[in-house]
């Protein structure tokens, strides 16, 4: 059984919008998600979160707190994802994803989230709680 561990960052701006990326392999339908990715080379989950947000969006962030851990199994891969609240502290919006899977970056409102095709639809209610 394979295992995958990673981190996701939840960033909300002053306009009460959440930072999202449009992603997908060339053969897949493209869907939206918060920036996320796998832990590399013994880095901490917090460091993974910061690196992934920077790689996928160009923003530099400060990790504020851990929000939740999601565990499960998908296609015989056990996964564990640590979600963090993060605040943008610098950088410029730009895609610099080394994997070439990110196609767009945008700040999405509560109403946008309800209609977007999401990579992980089970996260919708969790994400909506951040947008008051």
Automatic annotation (TrEMBL):
<dbReference type="InterPro" id="IPR020476">
    <property type="entry name" value="Nudix_hydrolase"/>
</dbReference>
<dbReference type="GO" id="GO:0016787">
    <property type="term" value="F:hydrolase activity"/>
</dbReference>
<dbReference type="InterPro" id="IPR020084">
    <property type="entry name" value="NUDIX_hydrolase_CS"/>
</dbReference>
<dbReference type="Pfam" id="PF00293">
    <property type="entry name" value="NUDIX"/>
</dbReference>
<protein>
    <submittedName>
        <fullName>NUDIX hydrolase</fullName>
        <ecNumber>3.6.-.-</ecNumber>
    </submittedName>
</protein>
<feature type="domain" description="Nudix hydrolase">
    <location>
        <begin position="3"/>
        <end position="130"/>
    </location>
</feature>
<comment type="similarity">
    <text>Belongs to the Nudix hydrolase family.</text>
</comment>
<dbReference type="InterPro" id="IPR015797">
    <property type="entry name" value="NUDIX_hydrolase-like_dom_sf"/>
</dbReference>
<keyword id="KW-0378">Hydrolase</keyword>
<dbReference type="InterPro" id="IPR000086">
    <property type="entry name" value="NUDIX_hydrolase_dom"/>
</dbReference>
């Amino acid at each position: 059984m394979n295992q995958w561990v990673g981190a996701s960052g939840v960033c909300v701006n002053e306009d009460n919008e959440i930072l999202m990326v449009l992603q997908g392999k060339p053969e897949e339908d493209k869907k939206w998600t918060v920036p996320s990715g796998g832990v590399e080379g013994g880095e901490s989950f917090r460091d993974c979160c910061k690196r992934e947000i920077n790689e996928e969006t160009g923003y530099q962030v400060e990790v504020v707190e851990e929000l939740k851990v999601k565990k499960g199994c998908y296609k015989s891969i056990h996964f564990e994802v640590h979600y963090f609240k993060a605040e943008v502290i610098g950088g410029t919006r730009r895609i610099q994803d080394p994997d070439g899977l990110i196609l767009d970056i945008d700040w999405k409102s509560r109403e946008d989230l309800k209609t977007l095709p999401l990579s992980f639809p089970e996260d919708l209610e969790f994400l909506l709680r951040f947008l008051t």
